[in-house]
Amino acid sequence: MAHGMTSYVCLPCRASYKQPYPGSHDHDRVCPRCAEPLIHVGSAFAAPKRRDTAAWRTLSVLLHAGVRFHKSCCGGPGYRPRTLSEVRERMAYARATGEPFAQALVRRELP
Predict the structure, then answer these.
(1) Which residues pair with 37 in a beta bridge?
(2) Where are the alpha helices (DSSP H) in the chain?
(3) Which residues contact residue 53 at a Cβ distance below 8 angstroms, ignoring those fewer than 6 apart?
(4) Can you give the pTM of this predicted structure?
(5) What's the CA angle centered on 56, arms 50 and 58, to 5 degrees?
(6) Which residues contact 105 (CB under 8 A, 6 or more apart)?
(7) What is the pLDDT of residues 59-100, one digit of tens each?
(8) For 39, which DSSP code?
(9) Which of 42, 44, 46, 38 is nearest to 12 (CA)?
(10) CA separation for the pair 64, 6 (Å, rounded)
(11) Which sign, positive or negative, has the C-alpha torsion 52, 58, 60, 63?
């Protein structure tokens, strides 16, 4: 039986690749275009279009904060901000309340 596939992204190239899940003996994966390390983002990831620089910038903030797109049972990965303004709102909320940045990013609504 074949293993499932998951997504990896290269932020400099703005490219997404479906590859098998990492195994215990796998080495780090590299981008076939630029040879930079790929970031494992999860199986519930949908890549933005390459020319959508704002969406890739938002994605970069999410990934650098440690937010990934793994399925969680039937609900999918949950809420993820799609615009830079949503990210800015959540950053301000995290600074004001002391909530961890990654946790504030995945909060659906701000109080």
Answers:
(1) 30
(2) 53-64, 84-97, 101-105
(3) 14
(4) 0.83
(5) 160
(6) 61, 62, 65, 67, 80, 81, 87, 90, 94
(7) 999 999 999 988 766 556 678 888 999 999 999 999 999 999
(8) E
(9) 38
(10) 19
(11) negative
